[in-house]
C-alpha cells in the first residue's frame, strides 16, 4: 500500500510504503544541494591544482587586496596621472567599492552565515597568513574587485581598463586558490560588485570619452618638423600653486618643451599676462598655415576667433586647469596634439557667439565661445576668485569665492526671449550637453547646431546652497527653479544696464541687449583618430 501526503508550502512530502516512511526533498532543496555539491567539488579541484609560478603570487595578491588597499592604491596612481578620464575612473571605482563593500560585509554575510571551506586539501604554501574567521558568503574581496573594475571600465581607456579587470579576476580567483572561499562565494561577491559599479550611472552618467566632430575632406598643410605652424603660448595658464610657495613647471612649460623637441621648425610666440591676446592671435593667424594654442579654455577661445577670422585650422594643446574643449576633442596631452597635427586630420566644429542685438549680423561685433557662456552668480564667483587667486592660489580662491557668492549673490532681473525672469544662475552651452544639472560638463557632439540653455530662476527664495553645489559638482539635477531647453538662438535684455558675461571662463561686460547664436561647423580643428 502506498500513501502520499502533501500540504501547500511544505518543504517535503511524506511517502509511505508499508511501514517505512522516507522524506523526499522538495525541488528547491534538491537544487540547492546540487549547487552545494558542485561548489565543493570545484573548490576541491582548485585546491588540488598546481599552477606553477602562482603559488607565491596569488597569496600575496590576495593579501594586498585586504581592506581595498590594492584598489585604493590603483585609484591614487590614476589620480596622480593628471588625465581627466583616469581621475573619473578612479573616483567611480572608489564610489562603487564604498557601495559594494558594506552591502556584502554587513548585510550579505550576516544574512547567509555560510561557514568557510575546510582547507585540508590546500597546500600550506598558499596559506601564509591567518585565514579569515568571518562568514564566507558572499566574498568581500571579490565584491570590491568587481566594483572597482566595473567602475574603471565605464570611464578609462582600454589599455587601463583591461589590466584592472585582469587584476580583479586574479584577486577573485586567489580567494578560492588560498582556501578562503568557495567559488560560489566569489561569483556572488563579484556579481554584487559589478552591479554596484553599474549602479553608479544612476547618479553619475558615464562620460562619452570623445565628442564627435563634423566630417571634413580637407587636409591641413603640415610638415614633420612643424614648418608653417605658429604656436601661441599663454605662460599664465594652468597656474595656481605659486601663492602657496610651490615652484613647479606649469603645464604650458611642459607642453612647450615637447613641442620644441618634436616640431623644431615651428614658430613659438609666448604671451605674458599683460599681452593683447586678440591682437597677438590675429597676427599669428595671418602668417600661419596652422595656428596652435597652448593654454586653457579662455586662451583657446581667443585663438578660435583668430582662426575663424583668417580661415586657418586650429591645433589645441592642453595647458590650462580644466581644458574642457581639448578634452572634448580627445586631446589630453601635448603628445596627443602632436600626433593629431602630423596626421593632418581635420574636423569641423560649431562656434557659438554672443553679440549686441543691434549688431548681431556683423562678425566683428560677435564674441565667440566654444564651451559655455554664463551670467548671474557664476560671473560673481569668477570675479571674486580672480581677485583672490594671486594671493592664496586658484583652488583656495575658488572655495572662498563660492562661500561669498553663496552668502551675497542676488538674482538678476532679465528678459529672456521677451519673458521676464529673475535669474540667479544661467549657462548657455555650445552644443547639447549630455550631463544633467545646472552646469553642463560634457557633450557627445561638437557639431549639432544647437544651444543648450540651463537656468536657475527664482521667486522669493534664492536656492543658494544647492545651486553653488551644482556649480562645484556639476551633477546636481534636483535644484529649485531649474529650467533647461535647447534652441538655435536666444535673446537677453537687462533693464538695469550692462550685463556681466563669462565666455569659457573669461568675464567681460556686455551691452544691455544681447543675442546668442551659432555658426555651424565653422571652425576646422585637428582631432585624434576615432577609437
UniProtKB/TrEMBL annotation:
Pfam families: DAGK_cat (PF00781), PAP2 (PF01569), YegS_C (PF19279). Signal peptide: none annotated. Keywords: Cell membrane, Hydrolase, Membrane, Transmembrane, Transmembrane helix. Residues 277-356 form the DAGKc domain. CDD domains: PAP2_like (cd01610). It is a multi-pass membrane protein. Coiled coil: none annotated. Its main location: membrane. It is found in: Cell membrane. It comes from the Bacteria. This is Phosphatase PAP2 family protein. It comes from Actinomadura chokoriensis.
